[in-house]
Amino acid sequence: MQRRMAGFTVVELMITLVIGAILLAIAVPNFTSMVQASRAQSMADDFASALNFTRTESLKLGSPVTICASSNGSSCTGAWNEGWIIFQDYAATEKDAPVLAKNGVTNLLKATGKAKLGSAIAVKSSGADQTYIRFTRLGTLAKGDKTAGFDVDMKVTGCKGVNAKKVTVSLSGMVRTAPAKCE
User: Fold this and answer.
1) What is the DSSP letter of 141?
2) What are phi and psi of 148, to 5 degrees?
3) pLDDT at 109 over 90
4) Which of 10, 32, 78, 123 has the most other CB atoms within 10 Å of its CB?
5) Residues 91, 178: Cα–Cα separation, whole Å
6) Domains in the chain: ranges and CATH
7) Rounded Cα distance, 37 and 129, in Å
8) Within a 10 A sphere around the Cβ of 127, how many other Cβ atoms?
9) Nearest 5°: phi and psi at 83?
10) Which residues of 11-26 are buried (b: 16+ CB within 10 A; e: fewer)?
11) At residue 152, does pLDDT exceed 80?
12) Does the pLDDT at position 117 exceed 70?
């Protein structure tokens, strides 16, 4: 009596490998898109959290609090994707530039380092780039000469479809996050 060997033939193994390669080729682009969307959502959540912290501190301290772009973690210099700082603002009026120190005293509340690599953050009000966002002691946006809230656009390199995020701050100080198209 002859025993039959159990197992797979070379042809069966090759067909399985080809099917696996086809499925992998279909899945990788979708996975990349999912990773981009996740990175943009993470950035938007971090920035919305910083804005909510800024607003809460302005209410708690009963004075203006500002968040501004900062490349060094101690002054309002640089671009938003280089980091940002949150501090009690000693500016005399809502229209004045942010003032970080008064009589040699600085009330730096929080500093955040660089955003994720390959990311872009743009803060605009009425279409113009902004380097800071100030909340009044009442938790509303300091108007200064602005008649609109702020739009913060966040995207990652290679962004496609609606994988970007937009954080919107209304004049009342409310922060909202929504999907946005990559441009």
Assistant:
1) B
2) -135, 165
3) yes
4) 123
5) 32
6) 12-180 (3.55.40.10)
7) 24
8) 7
9) 125, 175
10) eeeeeeeeeeeeeeee
11) yes
12) no
Distance from C-alpha of 60 to C-alpha of 54, rounded to nearest angstrom: 10
Q: Classify 71 as helix, strand or coil.
A: coil
| Interatomic CA distance for residues 29 and 52, integer angstroms | 35
Distance between first and last Cα of the chain: 72
Give the H or E element holding residue 107. Answer: none
**pLDDT value of position 116:** 66
Per residue in 18-48, pLDDT (tens digit) is 999 998 888 777 777 788 888 888 888 999 9
State the pLDDT at residue 1: 61
Q: Determine the Cα–Cα distance for residues 153 and 167; give it in Å rounded to an integer.
A: 7
H runs (alpha helix) in 62-154: none
Instruction: Map tokens 């009044």 to a residue.
Output: 136
d(C-alpha 57, C-alpha 134), whole Å:
11
